[in-house]
Design goal:
This protein has 14 helices and 16 strands. It has 468 residues and is α/β, with parallel strands linked by helices. Bound molecules: pyridoxal-5'-phosphate (PLP). The site of pyridoxal-5'-phosphate has 15 residues, from helix 5.
Length: 468
């Protein structure tokens, strides 16, 4: 038995994997990884895979990055962890100072949690609590966009709209206002991104105008709706939303968990709209893909509404045990150093252009409706019928074919339903981008050539994270 097989068997005897129908592994091999280096992951039989999706969008400077490794090693000899209530430490102070300096003016306070979903919970709770503390307890509800994703905990699911992940739990969820997304894949033919995003704002305006008295906040994934299939829109929408939120006295929550740290071409997506949200949620690439941590940045005005004598019970008493973990902070500090020292945002422009040119031919593919890109994220939408943009039934799991082909060829490409995408680490080379484009093209040919016969019951699941 190969080493891969033996680790797979031991794994499948005891583990329950995330976002997985475990029965799939009766056919689909699990890939145990022994080591990583740069863009490469290596399994126990020595086969290498180019990590085209940054291991679920977290890894920006490669696996086993020497600079991040060293910082963590230094930190672990100094202080591995201390509780953050009543105590503090050097990496968390330095990281907070750097995040405040790096993010748009007005974001002055940093609150930490251990993952993206709990970062969203914090933003939602703080917004709700702010209005209570400010004598407006009727402002309790949240506005979200269709096809949005904000994480897996119950309140985070409530503000999400990817049916595959939320439909089952509907009875548990908060009642939110859902507004049609400015998603430019859905724009009428001949219309530009800006015009479409602007036009779609009418729905948001109408909702805010009618219900602002009961609305605490609007939450959005700026510029890219990631888990919803890498759907994209124009920054003008964020600008209009900021103006409307000010006008109607509603908080604006930017979930930049996936898009923060350079993914959209700027350090943060909100920079492209020239705005400051009331809450900025960061995670994923925050620690360079090393350790789980999230940061919620907010304004002094928000902070002051909680600042009072203890007995007024206005404090934000939310806590997670590992808040502000020093090792995670050290990884984040090393990550920020690399951004600054290597002038990464500027250097990425050439890589983004290479991603565009390497995949341009796919726009002509008879089964590709669109190749779209925002900065260092590029997505290819496979469809059953190009003219009408009829999607493949999700049950056919076309993306899974691309996934399997890529593994054979030595690449980790994990489509979202029928959307093949690249979200590579920024240490990728031009040649490696060309290789990915070649593998994706072959995979799309194979996946779209076959007739797949599955019984297709009614359903609207677009397919998410799942490789098929
Ligand atoms: C991944 C993600 C989350 C959830 O983060 P977790 O760390 O997986 O809990 C929230 N919002 C967006 C936009 C994400 O991509």
């Amino acid at each position: 038995m190969s080493l891969n097989d033996s680790w797979m068997q031991r794994d499948l005897a005891v583990l329950w994997h995330p976002c997985t129908q475990m029965k799939d592994h009766e056919q689909l091999p699990l890939i145990p990884i022994r080591r990583g280096e740069g863009v490469w992951l290596e399994d126990f039989d020595g086969k290498r895979y180019l990590d085209a999706v940054s291991s679920w969008w977290v890894n920006v400077f490669g696996h086993a990055n020497p600079r991040i490794n060293q910082r963590i090693k230094d930190q672990v000899d100094q202080l591995e962890h201390v509780m953050l209530a009543g105590f503090s430490h050097q990496p968390v102070v330095e990281l907070s100072e750097r995040l405040v300096a790096l993010t748009p003016a007005g974001l002055e306070r940093v609150f930490y949690t251990d993952n993206g979903s709990t970062g969203i919970e914090v933003a939602l709770k703080m917004s709700f609590h702010y209005w209570r503390n400010s004598g407006r307890p009727e402002k309790q509800r949240f506005v979200t966009l269709s096809n949005s994703y904000h994480g897996e905990t119950v309140a985070a699911m409530s503000v999400g709209d990817v049916a595959l992940f939320t439909d089952t739990y509907k009875p548990l969820l908060l009642d939110t206002f859902k507004v049609p997304s400015p998603d430019c894949y859905l724009r009428p033919e001949g219309m530009g991104w800006e015009e479409h995003s602007r036009a779609m704002f009418a729905y948001m305006e109408r909702t805010l105008a009618e219900y602002h008295r009961e609305i605490a906040a609007v939450i959005v994934e700026p510029l890219i709706q990631g888990a919803g299939g890498m759907r994209m829109y124009h920054p003008v929408y964020l600008k209009l939303l900021r103006e409307a939120c000010d006008r109607y006295e509603v908080h604006l929550i930017h979930d930049e968990i996936a898009v923060g740290f350079g993914r959209t071409g700027t350090m943060f997506a909100c920079e492209q709209a020239g705005i400051t949200p009331d809450f900025l949620c960061l995670s994923k690439a925050l620690t360079g893909g090393y350790l789980p941590m999230a940061a919620v940045l907010t304004t002094d005005r928000l902070y002051q509404a909680f600042y009072d004598d203890y007995s007024t019970l206005r404090a934000f008493l939310h806590s997670h045990t590992y808040t502000g973990n020093p090792l995670a902070c050290a990884a984040a500090l090393a990550t920020l150093d690399i951004f600054a020292e290597d002038n990464v945002i500027e250097a990425n422009k050439a890589l983004a252009a290479r991603m565009a040119s390497a995949t341009a031919h796919l726009a002509e593919h008879p089964q590709v409706a669109e190749v779209r890109q925002t900065g260092m994220a590029l997505a290819i939408e496979m469809v059953q019928d190009k003219a009408s943009r009829t999607p493949y039934p999700w049950q056919e799991r076309r993306g899974l074919k691309v996934y399997q082909h890529a593994l054979e060829r030595g690449a980790l490409l994990r489509p979202l339903g029928s959307v093949v995408y690249f979200l590579p680490p920024y240490c990728i080379t031009g040649e490696q981008i060309d290789f990915l484009a070649e593998v994706a093209s072959e995979g799309i040919d194979i996946a779209t050539r076959e007739t797949v016969s599955v019984a297709v019951p009614a359903g609207r699941y677009p397919g998410f994270r799942d490789p098929g």
